[in-house]
Amino acid sequence: MGIDVVLPCLNEAGALPWVLSRMPAGYRPIVADNGSDDDSAEIAAAYGARVVHVPQRGFGAACHAGLVEASSDVVCVMDADASFDPGDLPSVADPVLAGQADLMLGRRSVQGKGAWPLHARIGNRVLAAELRRRIGVPVRDLGPMRAARREALLALPLSDRRFGYPLEMVVRAAEAGWRIAETDVPYYPRTGKSKVTGTLGGTVRTVRDMRRVLASVASPAASWHVTS
Q1: ∠ CA 174-177-179, rounded to 5°
Q2: pLDDT for residue 199 is more than 80
Q3: Quick one: which of 132, 159, 128 has its CA closest to 220?
Q4: What is the C-alpha separation between 119 and 140, in angstroms, rounded?
């Protein structure tokens, strides 16, 4: 059957060989290249990945273009920076395949110094707490490794094309009554410098984009279909 794995990418030439060489059998990488000026696209193609060139800049733009390009029933999304081991993808995809969850999130379990800087952890906690308060989804991490059914994802009204995209996916899924679940996945120091958590400015932009998504929530919900 096969599962497509969307890898949003911006200058990840140093990480892609390790990431793509560890893709589990049956998992097909789609590298959504968001204007890299290194050899990311060429390396991805050499390792057998499908490469999608995404001219619109933005993390969400890359993710959504990869999702549109995918063709499998269940689709995974994960960062291309070697902070996740693709070998852990089945732990996120299997509950969706089994019909136990509609959106499965990989809750980051930090492995090694520097994997998740303090300012980024604080930003994530603030957003997760706000998400719980506003719409009652008790997630502890807005994990970037995730899985869901492709057609259902495309049917969600996802409009953010920047750093708010991952949060908006959770918000719209909750509004649609999806069963949302988390499972622990190891999280390693990334290869190269992060465009998001690597700088305080990147974290601030991410928090700002995600707060804009939260502001779009009309009213708090009494309950959602969430498991943990």
Answers
A1: 80
A2: no
A3: 132
A4: 16
